[in-house]
Automatic annotation (TrEMBL):
Signal peptide: none annotated. Belongs to the class-I aminoacyl-tRNA synthetase family. The gene is trpS. Keywords: Aminoacyl-tRNA synthetase, ATP-binding, Cytoplasm, Ligase, Nucleotide-binding, Protein biosynthesis. L-tryptophan binds at D140. The lineage of its organism: Bacteria, Bacillati, Bacillota, Desulfuribacillia, Desulfuribacillales. Gene3D superfamilies: HUPs, Tyrosyl-Transfer RNA Synthetase. One of its GO terms (cellular component) is cytosol. Homodimer. This is Tryptophan--tRNA ligase. InterPro entries: aa-tRNA-synth_I_CS, aa-tRNA-synth_Ic, Rossmann-like_a/b/a_fold, Trp-tRNA-ligase, Trp-tRNA-ligase_bac-type, Trp-tRNA_synthetase.
Length: 330
């Protein structure tokens, strides 16, 4: 008798091109997890609108581009469902029905709510949709009966809220429709920007997940090194160098050797960068080449999204029909 795989659910907002930080923070882990769980991966375009509702001209292209990146990085549509969130209308209906029973205070106390209002104060996001996005996130999870949710520590309160929402519904209607999802913490690999600031799309201080070999070399050459190191044979401090931070993650076999040589002044910054660029190219070039194939075959990518939506809707409809029945609506 074989064990039934648990259901895992996660997603990303299509707000721009993916970079190595996204790969380390989520995608690398997803590729491994698809072998262990029954996986649903959502390109959450409704979530993107909560902070970028004025920036919709490129949304379709960003969704297509994200699907290509996911597939190029190793997600296998034969092992997981990859879909566009807005193709699952049951999520929107569940969000509406849940909004009738969830106290407003539950949403206002979510830690990221006030933080993001402050961080994104230049945007007009003091909206109903932005306040309610943790509820929409809960619907993403609960509608497909998600049990395991891979997240970083900052997202744990959202999973706790999802559990509370499912439990409240079950209690109010004396049912067992929804399971208790658990957070599966993703290993925290801190990747700074190329300039040693926080990695940010607004700073353009990142390397794209599907960068070409020439682009990788160009980006690595621009990386900030020890500002106190003037000449090639000056002893350096690798701990203040963004290049060494990348060596520790992407070149673990040689990282200590590179650090020792840097401290001794026996390796120059350009040589150190060249070694890193070669390592990053080994990782990224297969993804880059696969991405080019996918971009040239958009019908295949669309079929993947349609098939993923069909698989997800089959489960979502079952969940929603139970909710409708219990809440007395059609």
């Amino acid at each position: 008798m074989t064990d039934v795989k648990k259901t895992l659910m996660s997603g990303m907002r299509p707000t721009g091109e993916l970079h190595l930080g996204n790969y380390l923070g989520a995608l690398e882990n997803w590729v491994k997890l698809q072998n262990e769980y029954n996986c649903f991966f959502s390109i959450v375009d409704w979530h993107a609108l909560t902070t970028a509702y004025k920036e919709v001209e490129q949304l379709d292209m960003r969704i297509f581009d994200m699907a290509c990146d996911w597939l190029a990085a190793g997600l296998d549509p034969k092992q997981c469902a990859i879909f566009r969130q807005s193709d699952i209308k049951e999520i929107a209906e569940l969000h509406l029905l849940f909004s009738m029973i969830i106290p407003l205070s539950w949403l206002e106390r979510v830690p990221t709510y006030k933080d993001q209002l402050q961080q994104l104060k230049e945007k007009e996001i003091n909206t109903y949709g932005f306040l309610g996005y943790p509820l929409l996130q809960a619907c993403d999870i609960l509608v497909c009966q998600g049990e395991v949710i891979p997240v970083g520590e900052d997202q744990v309160p959202h999973i706790e809220l999802t559990r509370e929402i499912g439990r409240r519904f079950n209690h109010l209607y004396n049912s067992e429709v929804f399971k208790d999802p658990i957070a599966k913490l993703t290993e925290n690999k801190v990747l700074p920007g190329l300039d040693n600031r926080k990695m940010s799309k607004s700073y353009q201080n990142y390397i794209r997940l599907t960068a070409s070999p020439d682009e990788i070399m160009q980006k690595v050459r621009s990386m900030v090194t020890d500002p106190e190191r003037i000449r090639k044979d000056d002893p350096g401090n690798p701990e203040v160098c963004s290049v060494y931070a990348y060596h520790k993650i992407f070149n673990t076999d040689q990282a200590q050797e590179v650090a020792t040589a840097c401290k001794a002044g026996t390796i120059g910054c350009m040589q150190c960068k060249k070694i890193l660029a070669e390592k990053l190219t080994l990782l990224i070039q297969p993804i880059y080449e696969k991405k080019q194939e996918l971009v040239a075959n958009p019908d295949y990518v669309k079929d993947v999204l349609n098939d993923g939506a069909k698989k997800t809707r089959a489960i979502a409809l079952q969940s929603l029909e139970k909710v409708r029945e219990l809440m007395g609506v059609r």
